[in-house]
Amino acid sequence: MDFEKAKNLILNSKHLVVFTGAGVSVESGIPPFTGAGGLWTQYDPKFIELDYFFYNPESSWNEIYKIFYQFMDKAKPNFAHTEIGRLSKEKIVKAVITQNIDNLHQEGGADNVIEFHGTTKTLICPKCHKKFKATNDLLSSIPPKCTKCNAILKPNFVFYGEGINPEVQDKAFDELVRADVLLIIGTSGQVMPANSLPYLAKQERKDLIIIEVNPTKSTFTDAIVDYYFPIKATEFFKGIK
Questions:
Q1: Is pLDDT above 80 for 234?
Q2: What's the start-to-end Cα distance of the chain, in Å?
């Protein structure tokens, strides 16, 4: 595995974009949603289906609170997050596009983080569209309610059956078409429509160099990846530090 080659490509890039999935947060103690040991092997994901939420908000919120606010909120950024943050502060990483909703890239110091699937850190009112920070006070009563119209609030991340925010999609695509190096970390490439982004980037810019870091191959590996490192994210960043 040519760490020096990858390091040189990263450090000498003109517009480096990092694209991350659940694998980058696994080393912070957050399990992936799918696959072996994934959350959906332990829980029925229907509680974050949009229709189920609207018809059964109390039941849905009981699971949401337990998984996303009692368990996941305890996670801290790992070495991969903080190294991406360092490279961001040094203006080497120009943007981070993440499928994760855990806020760990921001906590790790990254700038210009595009949260493709939203975030657990804010709640939104489906009725009046007012947004709230997901504070302990607000979450002290489950389900939390809007202080303006008293409707039950929804976590501001994408549920099953819900579309991606068009502004977020446009922002992610704008960064990708400017990229000369794309670093893909910890994603299987199976979640739509996020999995289309690297392909669209490669179509728009034929000279785009794609580096992938993932212990197991993804749908991208043999299709569009130039340099593949079958290792954990923290190990990769220790190698190029």
A1: yes
A2: 15
Map tokens 């990769």 to a residue.
Answer: 236
Q: d(Cα 69, Cα 164) in Å, to the nearest integer?
A: 22
Q: What is the pLDDT of residues 202-232, one digit of tens each?
A: 999 999 999 999 999 999 999 999 999 999 9
**Which residue type, as a one-letter code, is found at position 153?**
L
117 is annotated as an active-site residue = yes
Q: Which of 15, 81, 105, 117 is catalytic?
A: 117
- Paired sense of beta strands 16-20 and 113-115, if any: unpaired
Specify which residues 132 forms β-bridges with: 123
Rounded CA gap, 182 and 19, in Å? 7
> Residue 35: is it exposed, middle or buried by C-beta count within 10 angstroms (0-12/13-18/19+)?
middle
Rounded distance between C-alpha atoms, residue 96 and residue 117, angstroms: 13
| Contact criterion met (CB below 8 Å) for 168 and 114 | yes
Cα(85)–Cα(32) distance, integer angstroms: 22
pTM for the model: 0.94
Residue 41 confidence class, pLDDT cut points 50, 70, 90: low
